[in-house]
Amino acid sequence: MLAFYGDIGRDHAGYSPLVSRVGYELHASTPISSWLEAGLFAMHGRVGVNEHGLDRNLNIESRITTGGLRFIYNFDQFLAPDRVVEPFFSLGFESMEFLSKADHLDAQGRPYNYWSDGTIRDIPEDAPNAEDAVIVQRDYVYESDIRELDLDGFGRYDERTFAVPVGIGARMRLGGGFDLRLSTTMHFTMSDMIDGITDESLGMRKGDGRKDRLLFSSVTVSYGINTTRRSKVPKPTLSSEEMDLLVLNEDEDADGIADMLDRCPGTPAGAKVDANGCPLDGDGDGVPDHLDDEPDTPSGAIVDARGVQLTDDDLLAAYLNYKDSANATLVTGIVESIGGARPTKVIRPGNRTYVVQVGSQQEGISEEMMQLILSIPDVRTIEQGDTTFYVVGDYELLPEAVKRQLALGGSGISGRVMAEERGRLIDVSGEAATVRVGLNDSTLMDAASSEAVIRVQLGAFRGRIAREVFSDVPDMVVLKGDDGLTRYYTGSFTDVNQAARRKVDMLLQGFDGAFLVAFKEGRRVSLQEAGARLTRPEDLREIPLGSINKEHIRFRVQVGTFAGNVPTDIMGRYIEVGDVTSVTSSDAVRYFYGTYDDRASAEVARREMQYLGFEDAFVVGEVDGRIISAEEAERLLTGP
Asked: Are 559 and 517 within one domain?
Protein backbone atom coordinates (compact mmCIF):
# COMPACT_ATOMS: atom_id res chain seq x y z
CA MET A 1 0.00 0.00 0.00
CA LEU A 2 1.31 3.46 -0.93
CA ALA A 3 0.40 6.49 1.23
CA PHE A 4 1.29 10.18 0.77
CA TYR A 5 2.55 12.50 3.52
CA GLY A 6 2.76 16.13 2.41
CA ASP A 7 1.11 19.55 2.58
CA ILE A 8 -2.35 18.22 1.62
CA GLY A 9 -4.20 15.98 4.04
CA ARG A 10 -2.36 17.09 7.20
CA ASP A 11 0.15 14.24 7.01
CA HIS A 12 -2.57 11.60 6.60
CA ALA A 13 -3.93 12.63 10.01
CA GLY A 14 -6.87 10.53 11.16
CA TYR A 15 -6.20 7.73 8.64
CA SER A 16 -4.32 4.43 8.89
CA PRO A 17 -1.26 4.10 6.63
CA LEU A 18 -3.01 1.11 5.07
CA VAL A 19 -5.94 3.27 3.94
CA SER A 20 -4.22 4.26 0.71
CA ARG A 21 -3.67 3.32 -2.91
CA VAL A 22 -2.12 0.08 -4.22
CA GLY A 23 1.53 0.04 -5.26
CA TYR A 24 3.82 -2.63 -6.74
CA GLU A 25 7.48 -3.37 -6.17
CA LEU A 26 9.93 -5.65 -7.96
CA HIS A 27 13.33 -6.29 -6.43
CA ALA A 28 16.40 -8.46 -6.90
CA SER A 29 19.19 -8.73 -4.35
CA THR A 30 22.32 -10.70 -3.60
CA PRO A 31 24.08 -11.35 -0.28
CA ILE A 32 27.35 -9.54 0.34
CA SER A 33 27.91 -11.30 3.65
CA SER A 34 25.87 -13.32 6.14
CA TRP A 35 24.44 -10.09 7.60
CA LEU A 36 24.24 -7.71 4.62
CA GLU A 37 22.71 -7.90 1.17
CA ALA A 38 22.49 -5.39 -1.68
CA GLY A 39 19.81 -5.16 -4.30
CA LEU A 40 18.05 -3.22 -6.99
CA PHE A 41 14.37 -2.38 -6.84
CA ALA A 42 11.64 -0.63 -8.81
CA MET A 43 8.28 0.59 -7.52
CA HIS A 44 5.18 1.87 -9.27
CA GLY A 45 1.85 3.06 -7.90
CA ARG A 46 -0.53 5.94 -7.31
CA VAL A 47 -1.14 8.15 -4.25
CA GLY A 48 -4.21 10.26 -3.63
CA VAL A 49 -5.24 12.76 -0.94
CA ASN A 50 -8.44 14.78 -0.45
CA GLU A 51 -8.62 17.64 2.11
CA HIS A 52 -12.03 19.23 2.77
CA GLY A 53 -12.61 22.03 5.34
CA LEU A 54 -14.24 25.40 5.90
CA ASP A 55 -11.27 27.39 4.66
CA ARG A 56 -9.32 24.93 2.46
CA ASN A 57 -10.44 22.34 -0.08
CA LEU A 58 -7.64 20.60 -2.00
CA ASN A 59 -7.15 17.23 -3.67
CA ILE A 60 -4.41 15.44 -5.57
CA GLU A 61 -3.66 12.16 -7.34
CA SER A 62 -0.10 11.43 -8.42
CA ARG A 63 1.44 8.56 -10.39
CA ILE A 64 4.73 7.52 -8.77
CA THR A 65 7.57 5.56 -10.40
CA THR A 66 10.85 4.92 -8.59
CA GLY A 67 13.96 2.81 -9.01
CA GLY A 68 17.14 2.53 -7.03
CA LEU A 69 19.66 0.65 -4.91
CA ARG A 70 19.34 -0.40 -1.27
CA PHE A 71 21.20 -2.32 1.42
CA ILE A 72 19.50 -4.67 3.88
CA TYR A 73 20.90 -5.52 7.34
CA ASN A 74 19.45 -8.65 9.00
CA PHE A 75 20.90 -8.51 12.56
CA ASP A 76 22.68 -11.82 11.94
CA GLN A 77 25.14 -11.23 14.80
CA PHE A 78 22.30 -11.16 17.34
CA LEU A 79 20.14 -14.06 16.09
CA ALA A 80 20.27 -17.86 16.18
CA PRO A 81 21.75 -19.56 13.07
CA ASP A 82 18.69 -21.81 12.61
CA ARG A 83 16.16 -19.00 12.81
CA VAL A 84 13.02 -19.09 10.70
CA VAL A 85 12.03 -15.44 11.15
CA GLU A 86 14.46 -12.52 11.17
CA PRO A 87 13.98 -8.74 11.32
CA PHE A 88 15.78 -6.43 8.92
CA PHE A 89 16.55 -2.78 8.36
CA SER A 90 16.98 -1.26 4.89
CA LEU A 91 18.53 1.95 3.58
CA GLY A 92 18.96 3.06 0.01
CA PHE A 93 18.97 5.75 -2.63
CA GLU A 94 16.53 6.13 -5.53
CA SER A 95 15.36 8.25 -8.43
CA MET A 96 11.68 9.18 -8.45
CA GLU A 97 9.31 10.51 -11.10
CA PHE A 98 5.85 11.86 -10.36
CA LEU A 99 2.91 13.13 -12.40
CA SER A 100 0.37 14.97 -10.25
CA LYS A 101 -3.17 15.97 -11.19
CA ALA A 102 -6.16 17.49 -9.39
CA ASP A 103 -9.96 17.25 -9.70
CA HIS A 104 -11.04 20.90 -10.41
CA LEU A 105 -13.87 20.35 -12.93
CA ASP A 106 -16.92 18.13 -13.10
CA ALA A 107 -17.88 15.95 -16.04
CA GLN A 108 -19.44 18.99 -17.82
CA GLY A 109 -16.35 21.14 -17.36
CA ARG A 110 -17.81 23.31 -14.55
CA PRO A 111 -15.33 24.42 -11.82
CA TYR A 112 -15.79 23.42 -8.19
CA ASN A 113 -16.59 26.31 -5.78
CA TYR A 114 -16.79 25.31 -2.13
CA TRP A 115 -19.43 27.35 -0.21
CA SER A 116 -19.56 27.92 3.54
CA ASP A 117 -22.69 25.77 3.82
CA GLY A 118 -20.63 22.74 2.74
CA THR A 119 -22.01 22.49 -0.80
CA ILE A 120 -20.10 22.58 -4.08
CA ARG A 121 -21.48 24.94 -6.72
CA ASP A 122 -20.57 26.13 -10.18
CA ILE A 123 -20.36 29.87 -9.19
CA PRO A 124 -18.30 31.40 -6.31
CA GLU A 125 -20.25 32.26 -3.16
CA ASP A 126 -19.25 35.96 -3.37
CA ALA A 127 -20.12 36.34 -7.07
CA PRO A 128 -22.79 38.98 -8.00
CA ASN A 129 -24.92 36.25 -9.62
CA ALA A 130 -24.41 33.77 -6.79
CA GLU A 131 -28.16 33.29 -6.57
CA ASP A 132 -27.99 31.49 -9.95
CA ALA A 133 -25.47 28.94 -8.64
CA VAL A 134 -26.21 25.28 -9.23
CA ILE A 135 -25.05 22.52 -6.89
CA VAL A 136 -22.58 20.15 -8.56
CA GLN A 137 -21.05 16.85 -7.48
CA ARG A 138 -17.41 15.84 -7.67
CA ASP A 139 -16.73 13.14 -10.27
CA TYR A 140 -13.32 12.20 -8.77
CA VAL A 141 -11.72 12.31 -12.19
CA TYR A 142 -8.33 13.98 -11.83
CA GLU A 143 -8.20 15.82 -15.11
CA SER A 144 -6.17 18.98 -14.34
CA ASP A 145 -2.36 18.84 -14.45
CA ILE A 146 -1.14 20.71 -11.34
CA ARG A 147 2.01 22.00 -13.02
CA GLU A 148 0.03 23.27 -16.01
CA LEU A 149 -2.50 25.04 -13.71
CA ASP A 150 0.41 27.01 -12.14
CA LEU A 151 -1.84 28.37 -9.36
CA ASP A 152 1.14 29.61 -7.29
CA GLY A 153 3.41 30.82 -10.10
CA PHE A 154 6.04 28.06 -9.77
CA GLY A 155 6.30 27.62 -13.57
CA ARG A 156 7.38 24.37 -15.21
CA TYR A 157 9.23 22.73 -12.32
CA ASP A 158 10.85 19.28 -12.62
CA GLU A 159 8.52 16.36 -12.00
CA ARG A 160 11.37 14.16 -10.85
CA THR A 161 13.52 14.05 -7.77
CA PHE A 162 15.75 11.85 -5.63
CA ALA A 163 14.74 10.11 -2.42
CA VAL A 164 16.18 8.08 0.43
CA PRO A 165 14.11 4.98 1.33
CA VAL A 166 14.39 3.83 4.94
CA GLY A 167 12.56 0.67 5.94
CA ILE A 168 12.03 -2.04 8.52
CA GLY A 169 10.47 -5.46 8.26
CA ALA A 170 10.69 -9.16 8.90
CA ARG A 171 11.48 -12.13 6.68
CA MET A 172 10.15 -15.67 7.14
CA ARG A 173 11.78 -18.64 5.39
CA LEU A 174 9.08 -20.80 3.79
CA GLY A 175 11.39 -23.51 2.45
CA GLY A 176 12.24 -24.55 -1.08
CA GLY A 177 14.05 -21.25 -1.63
CA PHE A 178 10.95 -19.10 -0.98
CA ASP A 179 10.77 -16.25 1.56
CA LEU A 180 7.85 -14.16 2.83
CA ARG A 181 8.66 -10.53 3.67
CA LEU A 182 6.54 -8.01 5.57
CA SER A 183 7.98 -4.49 5.39
CA THR A 184 7.21 -0.80 5.52
CA THR A 185 9.45 1.82 3.94
CA MET A 186 9.35 5.60 4.20
CA HIS A 187 10.63 7.32 1.07
CA PHE A 188 12.07 10.71 2.10
CA THR A 189 12.00 12.76 -1.10
CA MET A 190 14.09 15.83 -1.87
CA SER A 191 11.13 17.70 -3.37
CA ASP A 192 8.09 19.52 -1.97
CA MET A 193 6.32 19.65 -5.34
CA ILE A 194 4.53 16.28 -5.51
CA ASP A 195 1.28 17.88 -4.30
CA GLY A 196 2.12 21.29 -5.82
CA ILE A 197 1.91 22.95 -2.34
CA THR A 198 4.90 24.52 -0.55
CA ASP A 199 5.54 27.16 2.11
CA GLU A 200 5.66 29.66 -0.80
CA SER A 201 2.14 28.87 -2.01
CA LEU A 202 -0.43 31.68 -1.92
CA GLY A 203 -3.27 32.27 0.56
CA MET A 204 -5.03 29.31 2.03
CA ARG A 205 -2.86 27.03 -0.20
CA LYS A 206 0.25 27.84 1.85
CA GLY A 207 1.94 24.72 3.27
CA ASP A 208 4.80 23.93 5.63
CA GLY A 209 8.49 23.80 4.79
CA ARG A 210 8.95 20.03 4.98
CA LYS A 211 9.64 17.81 1.97
CA ASP A 212 7.02 15.35 0.75
CA ARG A 213 7.22 11.71 1.83
CA LEU A 214 5.77 8.37 0.70
CA LEU A 215 5.07 5.34 2.90
CA PHE A 216 5.07 1.94 1.16
CA SER A 217 3.83 -1.07 3.16
CA SER A 218 4.08 -4.42 1.44
CA VAL A 219 3.89 -8.21 1.58
CA THR A 220 6.50 -9.78 -0.72
CA VAL A 221 7.21 -13.35 -1.81
CA SER A 222 10.77 -13.86 -3.04
CA TYR A 223 12.71 -16.82 -4.38
CA GLY A 224 16.39 -17.42 -3.78
CA ILE A 225 18.40 -18.80 -6.69
CA ASN A 226 21.08 -21.23 -5.53
CA THR A 227 24.44 -19.89 -6.67
CA THR A 228 26.67 -22.20 -4.62
CA ARG A 229 29.84 -22.76 -6.60
CA ARG A 230 30.98 -26.29 -7.17
CA SER A 231 34.32 -27.16 -5.74
CA LYS A 232 36.95 -27.60 -8.40
CA VAL A 233 38.24 -31.12 -8.88
CA PRO A 234 42.01 -31.10 -9.24
CA LYS A 235 43.11 -32.18 -12.70
CA PRO A 236 45.61 -35.01 -13.05
CA THR A 237 49.15 -34.00 -13.81
CA LEU A 238 50.91 -35.89 -16.61
CA SER A 239 54.56 -35.92 -17.46
CA SER A 240 55.76 -34.93 -20.93
CA GLU A 241 56.41 -38.58 -21.82
CA GLU A 242 52.93 -39.62 -20.67
CA MET A 243 51.35 -36.76 -22.61
CA ASP A 244 53.24 -37.72 -25.80
CA LEU A 245 52.17 -41.35 -25.40
CA LEU A 246 48.55 -40.30 -24.90
CA VAL A 247 48.54 -38.11 -28.01
CA LEU A 248 50.25 -40.71 -30.20
CA ASN A 249 47.84 -43.51 -29.25
CA GLU A 250 44.59 -41.53 -28.99
CA ASP A 251 41.78 -42.78 -31.25
CA GLU A 252 38.76 -40.53 -30.74
CA ASP A 253 36.44 -42.30 -33.22
CA ALA A 254 37.58 -45.80 -32.12
CA ASP A 255 38.12 -47.01 -35.70
CA GLY A 256 41.50 -48.62 -34.92
CA ILE A 257 43.54 -45.84 -36.58
CA ALA A 258 45.35 -43.41 -34.25
CA ASP A 259 44.27 -39.79 -34.61
CA MET A 260 47.78 -38.80 -35.72
CA LEU A 261 47.36 -41.06 -38.80
CA ASP A 262 43.58 -40.80 -39.29
CA ARG A 263 42.70 -38.90 -42.49
CA CYS A 264 38.96 -39.20 -41.78
CA PRO A 265 38.37 -38.33 -38.11
CA GLY A 266 34.91 -38.74 -36.65
CA THR A 267 34.05 -42.00 -38.44
CA PRO A 268 30.70 -43.35 -37.12
CA ALA A 269 30.86 -46.31 -34.74
CA GLY A 270 30.81 -49.67 -36.52
CA ALA A 271 31.85 -48.35 -39.95
CA LYS A 272 34.61 -50.36 -41.63
CA VAL A 273 37.66 -48.26 -42.55
CA ASP A 274 40.80 -48.60 -44.65
CA ALA A 275 44.41 -48.11 -43.55
CA ASN A 276 43.93 -44.33 -43.58
CA GLY A 277 40.89 -44.44 -41.29
CA CYS A 278 38.42 -43.57 -44.07
CA PRO A 279 35.12 -45.50 -44.48
CA LEU A 280 35.16 -48.19 -47.17
CA ASP A 281 33.37 -47.50 -50.46
CA GLY A 282 33.01 -50.84 -52.22
CA ASP A 283 31.36 -49.57 -55.42
CA GLY A 284 33.44 -46.37 -55.65
CA ASP A 285 30.44 -44.06 -56.00
CA GLY A 286 31.71 -41.61 -53.37
CA VAL A 287 29.21 -42.69 -50.71
CA PRO A 288 30.68 -44.80 -47.84
CA ASP A 289 29.27 -48.31 -47.51
CA HIS A 290 27.65 -47.57 -44.12
CA LEU A 291 25.59 -44.80 -45.77
CA ASP A 292 25.09 -46.49 -49.16
CA ASP A 293 21.53 -47.70 -49.82
CA GLU A 294 22.71 -49.27 -53.10
CA PRO A 295 26.13 -50.86 -52.41
CA ASP A 296 26.57 -52.35 -55.92
CA THR A 297 26.09 -49.24 -58.07
CA PRO A 298 27.64 -49.70 -61.56
CA SER A 299 30.99 -48.01 -62.09
CA GLY A 300 30.70 -44.39 -63.26
CA ALA A 301 27.01 -44.07 -62.37
CA ILE A 302 25.77 -40.77 -60.92
CA VAL A 303 24.26 -41.25 -57.46
CA ASP A 304 22.45 -39.19 -54.84
CA ALA A 305 23.52 -38.55 -51.24
CA ARG A 306 22.39 -42.07 -50.24
CA GLY A 307 24.38 -43.78 -53.01
CA VAL A 308 21.34 -44.60 -55.17
CA GLN A 309 21.81 -44.33 -58.93
CA LEU A 310 19.96 -41.38 -60.45
CA THR A 311 17.70 -42.08 -63.41
CA ASP A 312 17.42 -39.87 -66.47
CA ASP A 313 14.17 -38.46 -65.05
CA ASP A 314 15.92 -37.57 -61.78
CA LEU A 315 18.70 -35.77 -63.62
CA LEU A 316 16.22 -33.92 -65.84
CA ALA A 317 14.17 -32.79 -62.82
CA ALA A 318 17.32 -31.56 -61.05
CA TYR A 319 18.41 -29.66 -64.17
CA LEU A 320 15.00 -28.05 -64.56
CA ASN A 321 14.96 -26.95 -60.92
CA TYR A 322 18.38 -25.38 -61.48
CA LYS A 323 17.24 -23.65 -64.67
CA ASP A 324 14.00 -22.33 -63.12
CA SER A 325 15.75 -19.05 -62.25
CA ALA A 326 16.28 -18.55 -65.99
CA ASN A 327 12.57 -19.09 -66.77
CA ALA A 328 13.17 -22.45 -68.47
CA THR A 329 9.98 -24.27 -69.47
CA LEU A 330 9.50 -27.97 -70.09
CA VAL A 331 6.45 -29.10 -72.03
CA THR A 332 6.10 -32.86 -71.80
CA GLY A 333 4.93 -35.17 -74.52
CA ILE A 334 2.41 -37.96 -74.26
CA VAL A 335 3.49 -40.92 -72.13
CA GLU A 336 1.49 -44.13 -71.87
CA SER A 337 2.14 -46.65 -69.09
CA ILE A 338 1.35 -50.33 -69.44
CA GLY A 339 0.34 -52.55 -66.54
CA GLY A 340 -1.05 -52.11 -63.06
CA ALA A 341 0.28 -49.76 -60.44
CA ARG A 342 3.31 -51.11 -58.60
CA PRO A 343 2.77 -51.69 -54.89
CA THR A 344 4.41 -49.35 -52.44
CA LYS A 345 7.12 -51.10 -50.41
CA VAL A 346 8.83 -50.02 -47.23
CA ILE A 347 12.57 -50.32 -47.79
CA ARG A 348 14.22 -51.82 -44.76
CA PRO A 349 17.85 -51.30 -43.69
CA GLY A 350 19.95 -53.46 -46.01
CA ASN A 351 17.42 -52.97 -48.86
CA ARG A 352 16.88 -56.73 -49.33
CA THR A 353 13.82 -58.84 -48.61
CA TYR A 354 12.92 -62.35 -49.71
CA VAL A 355 9.85 -63.46 -51.66
CA VAL A 356 8.53 -66.60 -53.33
CA GLN A 357 7.91 -66.31 -57.07
CA VAL A 358 4.83 -68.34 -58.00
CA GLY A 359 4.50 -67.34 -61.63
CA SER A 360 5.44 -64.95 -64.43
CA GLN A 361 4.09 -63.84 -67.76
CA GLN A 362 5.27 -62.24 -70.96
CA GLU A 363 2.27 -63.05 -73.10
CA GLY A 364 -0.84 -64.61 -71.56
CA ILE A 365 -1.41 -67.24 -68.89
CA SER A 366 -4.07 -69.90 -68.63
CA GLU A 367 -7.30 -69.58 -66.67
CA GLU A 368 -6.15 -72.36 -64.32
CA MET A 369 -2.90 -70.51 -63.57
CA MET A 370 -4.78 -67.27 -62.89
CA GLN A 371 -7.13 -68.98 -60.44
CA LEU A 372 -4.17 -70.59 -58.70
CA ILE A 373 -2.42 -67.22 -58.29
CA LEU A 374 -5.55 -65.39 -57.16
CA SER A 375 -6.27 -67.98 -54.45
CA ILE A 376 -3.12 -66.87 -52.59
CA PRO A 377 -4.10 -63.95 -50.28
CA ASP A 378 -0.83 -61.97 -50.33
CA VAL A 379 0.11 -62.30 -54.00
CA ARG A 380 1.40 -59.16 -55.72
CA THR A 381 3.11 -58.23 -59.00
CA ILE A 382 6.60 -56.98 -59.83
CA GLU A 383 7.43 -55.79 -63.35
CA GLN A 384 10.91 -56.18 -64.85
CA GLY A 385 11.13 -55.15 -68.48
CA ASP A 386 8.45 -56.98 -70.48
CA THR A 387 7.93 -59.64 -67.81
CA THR A 388 5.47 -59.52 -64.92
CA PHE A 389 6.40 -61.67 -61.91
CA TYR A 390 3.85 -62.86 -59.34
CA VAL A 391 5.39 -63.08 -55.88
CA VAL A 392 4.18 -64.04 -52.41
CA GLY A 393 5.37 -62.83 -49.01
CA ASP A 394 7.88 -60.23 -47.92
CA TYR A 395 10.41 -61.68 -45.47
CA GLU A 396 13.48 -60.18 -43.85
CA LEU A 397 15.09 -63.61 -43.30
CA LEU A 398 15.83 -66.16 -46.04
CA PRO A 399 14.74 -69.21 -43.95
CA GLU A 400 11.25 -67.73 -43.59
CA ALA A 401 10.92 -67.44 -47.38
CA VAL A 402 12.18 -71.03 -47.83
CA LYS A 403 9.56 -72.27 -45.34
CA ARG A 404 6.85 -70.49 -47.35
CA GLN A 405 8.17 -72.06 -50.58
CA LEU A 406 8.00 -75.56 -49.10
CA ALA A 407 4.53 -74.94 -47.70
CA LEU A 408 3.27 -73.74 -51.09
CA GLY A 409 4.78 -76.85 -52.69
CA GLY A 410 2.84 -79.00 -50.26
CA SER A 411 -0.35 -77.41 -51.58
CA GLY A 412 0.58 -78.06 -55.19
CA ILE A 413 1.90 -74.57 -55.95
CA SER A 414 5.47 -74.54 -57.22
CA GLY A 415 7.59 -71.53 -56.39
CA ARG A 416 11.14 -70.20 -56.39
CA VAL A 417 12.77 -68.14 -53.62
CA MET A 418 14.03 -64.74 -54.88
CA ALA A 419 15.60 -61.71 -53.25
CA GLU A 420 13.96 -58.35 -53.89
CA GLU A 421 16.06 -55.16 -53.90
CA ARG A 422 14.42 -51.87 -54.92
CA GLY A 423 11.81 -53.55 -57.10
CA ARG A 424 14.32 -55.90 -58.77
CA LEU A 425 14.30 -59.68 -58.34
CA ILE A 426 17.59 -61.53 -57.82
CA ASP A 427 18.00 -65.29 -58.03
CA VAL A 428 19.20 -66.79 -54.71
CA SER A 429 18.56 -70.45 -55.52
CA GLY A 430 21.97 -71.53 -54.21
CA GLU A 431 21.52 -69.88 -50.84
CA ALA A 432 17.94 -71.18 -50.59
CA ALA A 433 19.05 -74.76 -51.31
CA THR A 434 21.56 -74.60 -48.45
CA VAL A 435 18.86 -73.38 -46.06
CA ARG A 436 16.35 -75.98 -47.31
CA VAL A 437 18.61 -78.86 -46.24
CA GLY A 438 18.27 -77.92 -42.56
CA LEU A 439 14.47 -77.69 -42.57
CA ASN A 440 12.02 -80.47 -41.79
CA ASP A 441 8.29 -80.87 -42.19
CA SER A 442 7.58 -79.72 -38.63
CA THR A 443 8.80 -76.23 -39.45
CA LEU A 444 6.38 -75.68 -42.33
CA MET A 445 3.49 -73.25 -42.19
CA ASP A 446 0.12 -73.69 -43.86
CA ALA A 447 0.34 -72.61 -47.46
CA ALA A 448 -3.18 -71.46 -47.90
CA SER A 449 -6.05 -70.77 -45.60
CA SER A 450 -9.08 -73.01 -45.71
CA GLU A 451 -11.12 -69.83 -46.09
CA ALA A 452 -11.93 -68.42 -49.49
CA VAL A 453 -10.14 -65.31 -50.78
CA ILE A 454 -12.59 -62.70 -52.07
CA ARG A 455 -11.39 -60.07 -54.54
CA VAL A 456 -13.02 -57.18 -56.43
CA GLN A 457 -12.63 -57.61 -60.18
CA LEU A 458 -12.76 -54.22 -61.86
CA GLY A 459 -13.30 -55.89 -65.18
CA ALA A 460 -11.71 -57.72 -68.08
CA PHE A 461 -10.54 -55.51 -70.96
CA ARG A 462 -9.46 -56.37 -74.49
CA GLY A 463 -6.35 -54.23 -74.10
CA ARG A 464 -4.29 -53.00 -71.19
CA ILE A 465 -5.56 -49.79 -69.62
CA ALA A 466 -3.21 -46.93 -68.81
CA ARG A 467 -1.78 -47.19 -65.29
CA GLU A 468 -2.98 -43.66 -64.46
CA VAL A 469 -6.61 -44.84 -64.62
CA PHE A 470 -5.92 -47.03 -61.57
CA SER A 471 -3.66 -44.61 -59.68
CA ASP A 472 -6.10 -44.40 -56.74
CA VAL A 473 -6.80 -48.14 -56.58
CA PRO A 474 -4.96 -49.99 -53.77
CA ASP A 475 -3.64 -53.60 -53.86
CA MET A 476 -3.82 -53.95 -57.64
CA VAL A 477 -3.18 -57.33 -59.30
CA VAL A 478 -3.18 -57.40 -63.13
CA LEU A 479 -3.37 -60.68 -65.07
CA LYS A 480 -3.37 -61.09 -68.85
CA GLY A 481 -4.95 -64.34 -69.95
CA ASP A 482 -4.27 -66.40 -73.05
CA ASP A 483 -7.77 -65.43 -74.21
CA GLY A 484 -6.56 -61.86 -74.87
CA LEU A 485 -8.37 -60.32 -71.89
CA THR A 486 -6.50 -58.36 -69.23
CA ARG A 487 -8.14 -58.69 -65.82
CA TYR A 488 -7.81 -56.12 -63.03
CA TYR A 489 -8.34 -57.05 -59.36
CA THR A 490 -8.11 -55.12 -56.11
CA GLY A 491 -8.13 -56.26 -52.48
CA SER A 492 -7.86 -59.61 -50.75
CA PHE A 493 -10.60 -60.34 -48.20
CA THR A 494 -11.97 -63.23 -46.18
CA ASP A 495 -15.00 -61.21 -45.04
CA VAL A 496 -17.56 -60.71 -47.78
CA ASN A 497 -18.82 -57.49 -46.14
CA GLN A 498 -15.38 -55.88 -46.37
CA ALA A 499 -15.11 -56.97 -49.98
CA ALA A 500 -18.53 -55.48 -50.69
CA ARG A 501 -17.46 -52.14 -49.23
CA ARG A 502 -14.40 -52.13 -51.52
CA LYS A 503 -16.69 -52.87 -54.47
CA VAL A 504 -18.88 -49.88 -53.59
CA ASP A 505 -15.78 -47.66 -53.41
CA MET A 506 -14.74 -48.82 -56.89
CA LEU A 507 -18.22 -48.18 -58.30
CA LEU A 508 -18.09 -44.64 -56.92
CA GLN A 509 -14.74 -44.15 -58.67
CA GLY A 510 -16.37 -44.92 -62.01
CA PHE A 511 -15.58 -48.65 -62.47
CA ASP A 512 -19.12 -49.65 -63.41
CA GLY A 513 -18.20 -53.26 -64.14
CA ALA A 514 -16.77 -54.02 -60.68
CA PHE A 515 -17.98 -57.31 -59.15
CA LEU A 516 -16.92 -59.83 -56.50
CA VAL A 517 -15.10 -63.10 -57.24
CA ALA A 518 -13.96 -65.80 -54.80
CA PHE A 519 -11.04 -68.26 -54.98
CA LYS A 520 -10.19 -71.22 -52.78
CA GLU A 521 -7.43 -73.82 -52.91
CA GLY A 522 -6.36 -72.86 -56.43
CA ARG A 523 -9.75 -72.58 -58.11
CA ARG A 524 -12.62 -70.13 -58.43
CA VAL A 525 -15.57 -70.88 -56.15
CA SER A 526 -19.03 -69.40 -55.80
CA LEU A 527 -19.64 -66.41 -53.58
CA GLN A 528 -22.18 -68.52 -51.70
CA GLU A 529 -19.38 -70.92 -50.77
CA ALA A 530 -17.38 -67.88 -49.61
CA GLY A 531 -20.17 -66.85 -47.23
CA ALA A 532 -22.33 -64.53 -49.36
CA ARG A 533 -26.10 -64.68 -49.78
CA LEU A 534 -27.08 -64.67 -53.45
CA THR A 535 -30.39 -63.58 -54.96
CA ARG A 536 -29.78 -65.52 -58.20
CA PRO A 537 -27.55 -68.38 -59.38
CA GLU A 538 -23.92 -67.52 -60.17
CA ASP A 539 -22.29 -68.69 -63.42
CA LEU A 540 -18.60 -69.28 -62.63
CA ARG A 541 -17.80 -69.57 -66.38
CA GLU A 542 -19.03 -66.04 -67.05
CA ILE A 543 -16.30 -63.43 -67.65
CA PRO A 544 -18.00 -59.99 -67.68
CA LEU A 545 -16.20 -57.38 -69.71
CA GLY A 546 -15.19 -54.39 -67.63
CA SER A 547 -16.35 -50.89 -68.24
CA ILE A 548 -15.55 -47.45 -66.94
CA ASN A 549 -18.32 -44.90 -66.50
CA LYS A 550 -18.07 -42.86 -69.68
CA GLU A 551 -19.62 -39.86 -67.98
CA HIS A 552 -16.35 -39.54 -66.03
CA ILE A 553 -14.19 -39.34 -69.19
CA ARG A 554 -13.22 -35.88 -70.46
CA PHE A 555 -10.65 -34.29 -72.78
CA ARG A 556 -8.40 -31.35 -71.87
CA VAL A 557 -5.62 -29.32 -73.47
CA GLN A 558 -2.24 -29.46 -71.73
CA VAL A 559 -0.51 -26.09 -72.19
CA GLY A 560 2.64 -26.52 -70.08
CA THR A 561 4.62 -28.41 -67.46
CA PHE A 562 6.98 -26.74 -65.01
CA ALA A 563 9.45 -28.10 -62.48
CA GLY A 564 9.51 -25.47 -59.73
CA ASN A 565 8.00 -22.00 -59.90
CA VAL A 566 6.10 -20.85 -62.97
CA PRO A 567 7.68 -17.82 -64.69
CA THR A 568 5.72 -14.65 -63.98
CA ASP A 569 5.05 -13.84 -67.62
CA ILE A 570 3.70 -17.35 -68.33
CA MET A 571 1.42 -17.24 -65.29
CA GLY A 572 0.15 -13.85 -66.46
CA ARG A 573 -0.77 -15.34 -69.83
CA TYR A 574 -2.60 -18.23 -68.11
CA ILE A 575 -4.62 -15.76 -66.06
CA GLU A 576 -5.40 -13.71 -69.17
CA VAL A 577 -6.63 -16.79 -71.07
CA GLY A 578 -8.72 -18.01 -68.12
CA ASP A 579 -10.03 -21.53 -67.35
CA VAL A 580 -6.47 -22.82 -66.77
CA THR A 581 -6.08 -25.26 -63.86
CA SER A 582 -3.08 -27.12 -62.48
CA VAL A 583 -2.35 -30.71 -61.43
CA THR A 584 0.64 -31.20 -59.13
CA SER A 585 2.82 -34.33 -59.17
CA SER A 586 5.92 -35.19 -57.16
CA ASP A 587 8.33 -33.50 -59.56
CA ALA A 588 6.33 -31.04 -61.69
CA VAL A 589 3.14 -29.05 -62.09
CA ARG A 590 1.04 -29.54 -65.25
CA TYR A 591 -1.36 -26.87 -66.53
CA PHE A 592 -4.54 -27.68 -68.47
CA TYR A 593 -7.04 -25.57 -70.39
CA GLY A 594 -10.77 -26.31 -70.69
CA THR A 595 -12.84 -29.49 -70.27
CA TYR A 596 -14.53 -31.17 -73.28
CA ASP A 597 -16.82 -34.17 -73.82
CA ASP A 598 -15.18 -35.26 -77.09
CA ARG A 599 -11.73 -35.08 -78.63
CA ALA A 600 -12.84 -33.03 -81.64
CA SER A 601 -13.84 -30.10 -79.42
CA ALA A 602 -10.57 -30.42 -77.51
CA GLU A 603 -8.58 -30.35 -80.79
CA VAL A 604 -10.30 -27.07 -81.72
CA ALA A 605 -9.29 -25.63 -78.36
CA ARG A 606 -5.73 -26.92 -78.89
CA ARG A 607 -5.42 -24.99 -82.15
CA GLU A 608 -6.72 -21.87 -80.39
CA MET A 609 -4.07 -22.24 -77.68
CA GLN A 610 -1.33 -22.69 -80.29
CA TYR A 611 -2.57 -19.57 -82.05
CA LEU A 612 -2.29 -17.67 -78.74
CA GLY A 613 1.37 -18.67 -78.44
CA PHE A 614 1.23 -21.99 -76.58
CA GLU A 615 2.88 -23.86 -79.45
CA ASP A 616 3.48 -27.10 -77.52
CA ALA A 617 -0.17 -27.54 -76.44
CA PHE A 618 -1.65 -31.02 -76.96
CA VAL A 619 -4.82 -32.94 -76.03
CA VAL A 620 -4.96 -35.40 -73.11
CA GLY A 621 -7.70 -37.49 -71.54
CA GLU A 622 -8.99 -37.33 -67.97
CA VAL A 623 -10.82 -39.92 -65.86
CA ASP A 624 -12.01 -38.61 -62.48
CA GLY A 625 -9.05 -36.22 -62.27
CA ARG A 626 -6.50 -38.81 -63.47
CA ILE A 627 -4.67 -37.78 -66.65
CA ILE A 628 -4.31 -40.36 -69.43
CA SER A 629 -3.48 -40.11 -73.13
CA ALA A 630 -6.13 -38.84 -75.54
CA GLU A 631 -5.97 -42.13 -77.46
CA GLU A 632 -6.63 -44.10 -74.25
CA ALA A 633 -9.61 -41.88 -73.46
CA GLU A 634 -11.03 -42.43 -76.96
CA ARG A 635 -10.60 -46.20 -76.60
CA LEU A 636 -12.45 -46.15 -73.28
CA LEU A 637 -15.27 -44.10 -74.80
CA THR A 638 -15.71 -46.45 -77.75
CA GLY A 639 -15.25 -49.64 -75.70
CA PRO A 640 -18.01 -51.71 -74.12
From this structure: no
